[in-house]
Write a structure and sequence with these properties.
Layout: H1 25-35, H2 41-44, H3 50-61, H4 65-82, H5 86-104, H6 110-120, E1 124-126, H7 133-146, E2 151-155, H8 158-174, E3 179-182, H9 188-195, E4 199-203, H10 204-218, H11 224-233, E5 248-252, H12 254-258, E6 266-271, H13 279-289, E7 298-301, E8 304-307, H14 309-318, H15 326-342, E9 349-352, E10 355-358, H16 376-383, E11 392-398, H17 400-404, E12 409-414, H18 421-428, E13 432-434, E14 442-445, E15 449-451, H19 454-470, E16 474-479, H20 482-494, E17 500-502, H21 510-516, E18 523-526, H22 540-545, E19 548-553, H23 559-566, E20 575-583, H24 594-598, H25 602-631
Parallel strand pairs: 1-12, 1-13, 2-4, 2-5, 3-4, 5-12, 14-20, 15-20, 16-18, 16-19, 17-18, 19-20
Antiparallel strand pairs: 6-11, 7-8, 9-10
The structure holds adenosine-5'-triphosphate.
Adenosine-5'-triphosphate (ATP) binds near residues 108 and 572.
GO molecular function, one term: protein-exporting ATPase activity
Keywords: ATP-binding, Cell inner membrane, Cell membrane, Cytoplasm, Membrane, Nucleotide-binding, Protein transport, Translocase, Translocation, Transport
Membrane topology: Peripheral membrane protein
Length: about 650
Amino acid sequence: MALLKLPADVLARPERALLPPSSLERPWHWLRSRLHRPVALRRLGMRAQLPGIHRHAARLAALDADALRADGEALRHQLARRGITPSLARHAFALVREISRRELGMAHHDVQLLGGLAMLDGRIAEMHTGEGKTLTATLPAATAALAGIPVHVITVNDYLAARDAELMTPVYRAMGLSVAAVVHEMPPGERRAAYASDVVYCTNKELVFDYLRDTQQLGRNRHPLHAHAARLAGTLSDTRLLLRGLHFAIVDEADSVMLDEARTPLILSGPSGSEAIDLALLDEALAMAGEFEEDRHFVRESGHIHLTERGRQRLTELASSGWAGRSRREWLIQQALLARHHFHRDRHYLVRDGKVQIIDEHTGRVMADRSWEKGLQQMIERLEGCEPSEPNVTLARLTYQRFFRRYHHLSGMTGTAREVRQELWQTYRLRVVAIPPHRPSRRQYWPTVAVGRAEEKWRWISKRVKDMSDQGRAVLVATVSLADSEALSRWLDEAGVVHAMLNARQDADEAATVALAGRAGAVTVATSMAGRGTDISLDEAVKSAGGLHVIVAGHHDASRVDRQIAGRCARQGDPGSVEFVVCDEDELLDELDGWQRRLGPLASRLKLAQRKREARHARDRARLLAADWQEGEQLGFSGKAE
Ligand SMILES: Nc1ncnc2c1ncn2[C@@H]1O[C@H](COP(=O)(O)OP(=O)(O)OP(=O)(O)O)[C@@H](O)[C@H]1O
């Protein structure tokens, strides 16, 4: 088995150069992606590695602490000298396993060893929810770090980055490796120090923004020759850069990070310093937008507003003479229509301390210091009666598709990769390996409950929650939006059900809320904040009462997200159950046109709506990727024509 196809001079080159596929290659790649199936473990010969790992493990288990440390040191020298060969990888995996057993009381299961091998081989390990991916990642991460390669373990939110780094620190530290987490509130100095660690846990957003900041620092020195000349002239010092380069990445929740979040590019912005905003203009645009009717004057499509001919006429009638030029007028009304009809308070954003704060649609968390661009932020602030903030200008922009392909070694893990395997291959050249579970799952799927109005849904759920909690089960209710979680909370208050909340507004003490969520009778109402990665450990009493019961109060944009939420229960062989409760007023139904909205049972209409939304999002990503290649490369450390 060939492990780790890294170039020999990996450390000398901060990132990989990207070449867009040629017009001849494109159909070939497309065909290969269609034919791509999850790779069978047998074909990779990975199981054949296990006896070797166990032989090393048996030898290491007999060593005392000093001898184990000496063994680790010797391995480190060999890895640095020879690179990661299959036999050294087996040795390293056994060492990580033995140290984890001693430090954490958890020895990696065989399936975790297989997941680790798949990632070391540059693939996506599909491991069911709750199978222990956090622990699995230590295998390839520590192996690469021992070989001297800087490692990034990338995940979806700061809470998980900090949690995973903290949980796994004893393992790395016992091997003499440094580990750090980069989180949003860290100042640049601390960030730079954290990135200097052997293993860095961070979120995709922090990482890409730091990368963009570095490209800004490099400025015109992006070309290696320019950079070299600037270093000689003393105008560029690498100590100003945050990252050490893009060498070895393990992407946790890979489908979320690499696909779901990849629909919009990341934009680094700074204050524009331009003239003050004309508030009267915003007010007039918002007032006019109030007079426009959807489908008559404008249509909404993939988050964009298009004026109809009738809409244009209406705009000419309404606009007072001298009110902005024609194209600026149309642009203003489009922003105002987006503010009024597309973005909703307590779903897309919340208002806190007189400020409009964006809620990340994927993680359910507030995105501090982020704003919409092109005046939309100010339009929404005006609509909400907040003080308009200073407009920003775009300094740099990068898509995840481009960013991740710059890693010399890219790998990932997730519970939900199968259905997007073709896109993962087509976009990132990553193949999915399906890893079997350690123990068969005991998760029970209860039949979906369909009701008419939203209030019937909340009433039904409150009753069910009370019943379950009275039986000594722990209950998690997952809502689609912040507004929904608060609506349910009011119903539960009325029914006298004590419950904890986890959403963008109530996000303090997340760890404490999660720690209590598995107690007998505990009820937790959460948005997607308690989705991927959240690990609720159960009391023995809850386990014997049937485990955690998850109620999913409406389908999400992708069936993968629904499955991730269901995956909060019945982890590591525990019992657990899940049920979906849907209603005629669920937002997802907006995806359907006239007859589709009415025909067939509600559950199948929602499934169709979900499939349509998944397809629409996949199209958006394909469009972004195609536009990206066309635009040509401007960013990056390498500066090479790409
Ligand atoms: N080898 C092991 N032995 C004992 N316990 C383990 C082992 N591996 C993982 N666990 C435990 O299993 C639980 C689930 O682990 P973890 O949260 O990493 O799962 P996950 O696969 O990342 O789940 P998700 O897909 O939901 O993110 C944790 O409480 C962890 O401590």
